[in-house]
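cron nightly-structures :: item 1 of 1
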Amino acid sequence: MFGLIGHLTSLEHAQSVADDLGYPEYANQGLDFWCAAPPQIVDDFHVTSITGQTIRGKYIESCFLPEMLSNRWVKSAIRKVLNAMALAQKSDINITALGGFSSIIFEEFNLKDNRQVRNIELDFGRFTTGNTHTAYVICTQVETLAEKMGVDLAQSTVVVCGATGDIGSAVCRWLNEKTNTKELICVARNQERLQSLQEELGRGKILPLEEALPLADIIVWVASLPKGVEIDPDKLKRPCLIIDGGYPKNLGTVLNAPDISVIKGGIVEHSLDIDWKIMKIVNMDIPSRQMFACFAEAILLELEGWQTNFSWGRNQITVPKMEQIGAASRKHGFQPLLF
């Protein structure tokens, strides 16, 4: 059995779907209440591969909200992730994916030093961030959509925003090793990490966001949009392909302009229907088929019997591991979202 740990996009979103999740008494409660709310298993379902294999999964709502990342509530955010992991392990789930901000919180706050959660000692081998599959899917979206749009990567500039993150650095490695991309521009806040990535790749320009975006034929966005930062679509190249790998995915609204194509990055579509409700709650276009690629990684690991922390640790994703999870993804009937 596999598990998925997720969260909703905002307090407003959480209040609006509390009834669907099975706890209507939360609907009118404020952030202080949600900070105290425990994680809950809210979905129990089955996934069938195109090979005919069927496995069981559970979705754990962590009750974490992005608003909790402010200083006042950050301890609640940490507690939410650890408690959700403990619930997954206590429920005898073999492999669980940390979705959305869950994996980011784990890495940023060094939660590996917090193995003991009440009477449970966390076994980190039972958890994966799902970032390897997400990075593979985003790279496949870049290559496939560029070809469909008539964009020649050999003549193109690709800007990766969030390049030093786990997914961003993996995307850069893939573009560097597997494609003939003419120019790679890396954007991130941490200059020291940017320079280390540049040295590792042996190429790639380092530019601030406002200088990089107007040069891009393709933008891979795998970072949060900082408060107060706005992107002017009039300053972007036309045509411009944008792979929005952030969460929540809102660049399609911000950059709604002619000849700018914004694709939901890191989303996959399964070949067969899945009997779950959670993807409807998080507003997938086809909730019975579509899901976040990080969640799909847990499904793939369970289907393949790779019950291990396939994606774990900061910036450890390699191109061979992306190829490995990509082959499993195709084998079991997943394909990157392309429209």
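cron nightly-structures :: done
The chain is about 35% helix and 20% strand.
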